[in-house]
Amino acid sequence: MHIPQLLQQRFVDALKDLTDDPDAFASMIRSTTDPNHGDYQCNSAMPLCKALKQPSREVAETLVSRLKVDDLCETPTVAGPGFINLKLRDEFLTEQLRAMLGDARCGVAKTQQGGSIVIDFSSPNVAKPMHVGHIRSTVIGDALARTLKFLGYQTITDNHLGDWGTQFGIIIYGYRHFGDPQVVNQNPVPELSKLYRHVNQLIEYRKALASKPKTIEAIETATNDLAAAESSLASLPAKEQKKAKKNIASQQRRIAGLRDELQSLDGKIQAVESDAALMADAQKHSDIDTAVLQETAKLHRGDPENLALWEQFLPFCKDEINRIYDRLDIQFDHTLGESFYHPMLGPIVEKLETMGLASQSDGATCVFLDGFDAPMIVRKQDGAFLYATTDLATLEYRLKTFQPAEIVYVVDSRQSEHFEKLFAVADAVGTGDVKLVHVNFGTVLGEDGKPMKTRSGSLIGLESLLDDAVDRAKQVVCNPDRLENFDPPMDESEQEAIAEIVGIGAIKFADLGHHRTSDYRFNLDKMVALDGNTSAYVQYSYARIQKILERAEKAESDVIDMVESHGIQLTHPAERNLALMLLKFEEALVAVHKDYAPNMLVDYLLETAKVYSKFNESCHVLRAESPTIQATRLMLVALCGRILGVGLNLLGVGVVQRM
Ligand code: ARG
């Protein structure tokens, strides 16, 4: 049940003879912020009054007189300049709730839209351990896939693994120079990670050495410029001072940023130079960065030895990430990595050339695009293909294989330009009417507001982050004071199972709760609190509901019988608020799809849990005043429990029966 859509249809009928575009005006229906103004309001009278050359209040009155909503609403009222306030009839609410009982879809309509939606998400570069940067694509993509599927879309999830890039050059090099075949064979996953980290650290050291002098120079120049700007400030005319001060402030910020960068470079240099063994390796492998690129290039050319190593290592790398996906309860329909598209790269470049879209520039093959400063390079001078080439081949393959209506790429905002170019080239090649969307997202920051790193400057491993969250969840949920209240007592294995669900859920829910395009600060304490805007709060509401149902000895099927025999009646405002909230579930899900924004569902679940809590404070269920009131309240409780459970599940967050 999508109430605004239902009301919108009625408004379209009422608006038909008043405007050429009734749909646009009818779509101006919103939830009210003040319950005194009803449940929904329609704001179309104000924009419409200009065209009709009538006062907006009069337009609103006319609309109300034409509107046929008796079956849904009490008599609409007009307020202020012409807001049309709509209050749903109690009978309408209770009928809808009655229909939701026993309905696995929770009253949510199935979309009529055909065509599939491909969702490209997670897509880490394997061969290196997953880190904090991989949370967002994985969690947002999974929540979108689950929600769209629930809405009835045919979804195709695809993990576009980076299984063919430089990271393999790194482990091949590492294996050859630092690896012990026997140790690697015995314990491949941790050993390969170790080799990756080791070689990467040496490369980072080289890079840091090379960029340190440049950074120092940049700081010096910026500091001199700043001093000059500061000393000339007083002599400037008053009008120009404001602007100059702004420039000074921005210069100061830039210097602070450069200093941070220098500090991080020093950290990388220190980490190697303070360790004799590392330092010896660094000296011996002074050309490690180019050597690694050569190993990668050899692999791409089909060098049999490198190819054999790649084939030997890849399954282990996949095992490693699959372990994390299992823990996160994430599945994909397909995992077609970059390597899968390798044979298609030459042909796609040829196709672009034949179509006259690609041309040579400085030995490289490029697609020049209107509106972009730089072209899209699809083949480098040395013949190597690029990330963009693979994405073009991937797109062509997906169009041919899945014939989707929509392809959604859940990828970091820093790749926005890449996708703008990709979509522009796709448009030039011709993709039919498929909708291509870059669902971009911001960065996870540490508590200091900077990208989250470990002390040595590397990104924090995803697994250790999950472990920390689970530990924290255990401290919060299973502290001795709380444990006293459980009967039968909670044994160790139940405590661990709860901590895992609450801890992992906390990380996902906190991530999804921020609008995807904004950065957010990672704060475990806040994420796992029982009384904040957290999954633990919603999970706790769910568990309390299970307890009430258990005490009442009523399953949802029993509640159906109860309302059949005793009827339904809303007698308290807290009941009505909860009823209305439960009927807004579909609205929340549709909003998630509209902007690819899972935070809309997070907000809905938090709001519902809060409204439930008010209901729980003011309405007795087990000691209700009459059988009808009890049947009504049990219905609300049962439906609320189910919607919270289903809603959390759509976010990839689990529930527990007690906590
Ligand atoms: N592997 C890439 C990275 O880690 C992300 C791939 C996203 N998907 C795509 N089709 N480009 O940056």
Automatic annotation (TrEMBL):
<keyword id="KW-0812">Transmembrane</keyword>
<feature type="short sequence motif" description="'HIGH' region">
    <location>
        <begin position="124"/>
        <end position="134"/>
    </location>
</feature>
<keyword id="KW-0547">Nucleotide-binding</keyword>
<dbReference type="GO" id="GO:0005737">
    <property type="term" value="C:cytoplasm"/>
</dbReference>
<dbReference type="InterPro" id="IPR008909">
    <property type="entry name" value="DALR_anticod-bd"/>
</dbReference>
<comment type="similarity">
    <text>Belongs to the class-I aminoacyl-tRNA synthetase family.</text>
</comment>
<keyword id="KW-1133">Transmembrane helix</keyword>
<dbReference type="GO" id="GO:0006420">
    <property type="term" value="P:arginyl-tRNA aminoacylation"/>
</dbReference>
<dbReference type="InterPro" id="IPR036695">
    <property type="entry name" value="Arg-tRNA-synth_N_sf"/>
</dbReference>
<keyword id="KW-0030">Aminoacyl-tRNA synthetase</keyword>
<dbReference type="Pfam" id="PF00750">
    <property type="entry name" value="tRNA-synt_1d"/>
</dbReference>
<keyword id="KW-0175">Coiled coil</keyword>
<dbReference type="InterPro" id="IPR001278">
    <property type="entry name" value="Arg-tRNA-ligase"/>
</dbReference>
<dbReference type="Pfam" id="PF05746">
    <property type="entry name" value="DALR_1"/>
</dbReference>
<dbReference type="InterPro" id="IPR035684">
    <property type="entry name" value="ArgRS_core"/>
</dbReference>
<dbReference type="Pfam" id="PF03485">
    <property type="entry name" value="Arg_tRNA_synt_N"/>
</dbReference>
<feature type="transmembrane region" description="Helical">
    <location>
        <begin position="634"/>
        <end position="656"/>
    </location>
</feature>
<keyword id="KW-0472">Membrane</keyword>
<comment type="subunit">
    <text>Monomer.</text>
</comment>
<dbReference type="GO" id="GO:0004814">
    <property type="term" value="F:arginine-tRNA ligase activity"/>
</dbReference>
<keyword id="KW-0436">Ligase</keyword>
<dbReference type="InterPro" id="IPR005148">
    <property type="entry name" value="Arg-tRNA-synth_N"/>
</dbReference>
<keyword id="KW-0648">Protein biosynthesis</keyword>
<dbReference type="InterPro" id="IPR001412">
    <property type="entry name" value="aa-tRNA-synth_I_CS"/>
</dbReference>
<dbReference type="InterPro" id="IPR009080">
    <property type="entry name" value="tRNAsynth_Ia_anticodon-bd"/>
</dbReference>
<dbReference type="GO" id="GO:0005524">
    <property type="term" value="F:ATP binding"/>
</dbReference>
<feature type="coiled-coil region">
    <location>
        <begin position="241"/>
        <end position="275"/>
    </location>
</feature>
<feature type="domain" description="DALR anticodon binding">
    <location>
        <begin position="538"/>
        <end position="659"/>
    </location>
</feature>
<keyword id="KW-0963">Cytoplasm</keyword>
<feature type="domain" description="Arginyl tRNA synthetase N-terminal">
    <location>
        <begin position="5"/>
        <end position="88"/>
    </location>
</feature>
<protein>
    <recommendedName>
        <fullName>Arginine--tRNA ligase</fullName>
        <ecNumber>6.1.1.19</ecNumber>
    </recommendedName>
</protein>
<dbReference type="InterPro" id="IPR014729">
    <property type="entry name" value="Rossmann-like_a/b/a_fold"/>
</dbReference>
<keyword id="KW-0067">ATP-binding</keyword>
